[in-house]
């Protein structure tokens, strides 16, 4: 993959979506700087995946930022409360789920924005998706547009005319379309994890919202998910 001259910060969680976005940014010839977060999440195994993905790519630098969002609570991903489990995607609700982490994408994007300004980069990539998602308000196109507007009002770079662009190449794709796109770019989905409540060693539960949406995507794409499940 190319290490192009135009710098971009890519938010890399270690999940299916962020792995695809990383590959897309590299395919578009960006010089990629990846950023991941240890934020008190119960599925911390995703950081191992992020490291593996960054290591096998042309990422110039991979930053891991530590923020203790578990000290604030408010989510089953950052507390000891039970993660909701279901037997089918059909059981998923349109309501905001308990796995929503308050202001998470706003916090992550703010860190990416700060690093982009230091790097003199004008591009940030995030793998939000508005179709196959579990009701998260910070994955919507109107949210991304609002954050981008704020970023260009609140930074020296933006005021100086170097406008930031937040890229969301997956936002209108189904999970199956995302998987097909990633496979065409050589993404190794065996090095990604989506589970909110993995067993020790990272084996996926197969019943949380994220596992069900992932499995549905692979099924519709006609591909076997290489990630191990219980």
Can you tell me about this structure?
With 230 residues, the protein is an alpha/beta fold. The chain has a single domain, classed as Rossmann fold. It has seven helices and five strands; from the N terminus they run βαβαβαβααβαα. It has helices at residues 16-27, 45-55, 104-119, 141-154, 156-159, 175-184, 209-221, and strands at 6-11, 30-38, 61-66, 123-125, 165-167. The chain has a five-stranded parallel beta sheet, sandwiched between helices. Helix 6 crosses helix 7 (209-221). The radius of gyration is 17 Å and the shape is globular.
Question: Which helices and strands occur, and which strands form pairs?
Answer:
Layout: E1 6-11, H1 16-27, E2 30-38, H2 45-55, E3 61-66, H3 104-119, E4 123-125, H4 141-154, H5 156-159, E5 165-167, H6 175-184, H7 209-221
Parallel strand pairs: 1-2, 1-4, 2-3, 4-5
Helix pairs in contact: 1-6, 6-7
């Amino acid at each position: 993959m190319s290490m192009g001259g135009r710098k971009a910060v890519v938010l890399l969680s270690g999940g299916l979506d962020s792995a695809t976005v990383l590959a897309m940014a590299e395919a578009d010839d960006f010089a990629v700087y990846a950023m991941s977060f240890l934020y008190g999440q119960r599925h911390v195994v995703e950081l191992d995946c992020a490291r593996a993905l960054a290591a096998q790519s042309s990422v110039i630098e991979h930053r891991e930022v530590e923020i203790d969002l578990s000290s604030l609570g408010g989510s089953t991903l950052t507390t000891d409360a039970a993660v909701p489990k279901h037997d089918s995607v059909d059981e998923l609700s349109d309501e905001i789920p308990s796995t929503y982490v308050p202001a998470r994408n706003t916090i992550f994007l703010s860190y990416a924005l700060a690093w982009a300004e230091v790097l003199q980069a004008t591009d940030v990539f995030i793998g939000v998706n508005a179709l196959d998602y579990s009701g998260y308000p910070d994955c919507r196109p109107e949210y991304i547009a609002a954050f981008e507007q704020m970023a260009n009002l609140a930074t020296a770079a933006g005021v100086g005319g170097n406008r930031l662009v937040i890229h969301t190449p997956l936002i209108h794709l189904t999970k199956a379309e995302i998987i097909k796109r990633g496979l065409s770019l050589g993404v190794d989905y065996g090095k990604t994890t989506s589970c909110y409540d993995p067993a020790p060693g990272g084996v996926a539960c197969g019943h949380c919202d994220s596992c069900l949406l992932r499995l549905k995507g692979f099924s519709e794409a006609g591909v076997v998910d290489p990630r191990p499940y219980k």
